[in-house]
């Protein structure tokens, strides 16, 4: 099967490689002048498979008032009258429970292990 993958960043390249390994013919489309010239060029180039603390956690929930009042805070949110933004706020607050943070951590650890194994297989 011929498959088009849009974007030659880390996600696009990984997807293309997986599809090629599965026997597909892949066309990779990138608007920038080179692979990984977008967001992938600006990450920390860190392969951390076990550092997976979710942002939505009880610790974050406790810090929100301080973060919202600090003018230099990295957290800024002005939802205005957008119902979708308020829905996101409510869902984020619900995701800050200890149970949800534990579930998210387990899923992210599993994803990290899969990523590590895939990367090792490509070496």
Provide key terms for this protein.
mainly alpha, 2 domains
SSE diagram, text form:
Blueprint: E1 2-6, H1 10-21, E2 25-29, H2 58-69, H3 83-95, H4 98-122
Written description of the protein model:
- The protein is extended and about 50 Å long.
- The chain starts with a strand and ends with a helix.
- α1 (10-21) links the parallel β1 (2-6) and β2 (25-29).
- It has 2 domains: 1-45, no CATH class; 47-123, no CATH class.
- It is mostly helical and 123 residues long.
- The chain has 4 helices and 2 strands.
- The longest helix is centred in the last third of the chain and has 25 residues, at 98-122.
- A two-stranded parallel sheet has the order 1-2.
- The model has no long low-confidence stretch (mean pLDDT 88).
- Contiguous uncertain segments of 5+ residues: none
End-to-end separation in angstroms reads: 25 Å
Order of helices and strands: EHEHHH
Q: Assign the structural class, choosing from mainly alpha, mainly beta, alpha/beta, alpha+beta, or little secondary structure.
A: mainly alpha
Helicity range: 40-55%
Average pLDDT score: 88
Shape: extended
How many discrete structural domains?
Answer: 2
Question: What's the short story on this structure?
Answer:
The chain is mainly α and 123 residues long. The chain has helices at 10-21, 58-69, 83-95, 98-122; strands at residues 2-6, 25-29. Strands 1-2 form a two-stranded parallel sheet.
């Amino acid at each position: 099967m011929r498959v088009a993958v849009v974007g030659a960043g880390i996600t696009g390249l990984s997807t293309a490689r997986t599809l090629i390994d599965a026997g597909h013919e892949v066309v990779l489309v990138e608007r920038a002048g080179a692979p990984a010239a977008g967001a992938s060029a600006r990450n920390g180039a860190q392969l951390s498979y076990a550092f997976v603390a979710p942002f939505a956690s009880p610790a974050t929930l406790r810090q929100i008032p301080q973060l919202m009042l600090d003018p230099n805070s990295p957290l800024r949110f002005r939802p205005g009258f957008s119902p979708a933004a308020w829905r996101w706020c409510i869902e984020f607050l619900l995701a800050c429970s200890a149970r949800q943070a534990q579930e998210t951590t387990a899923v992210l650890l599993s994803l990290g292990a899969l990523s590590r194994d895939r990367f090792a297989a490509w070496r």
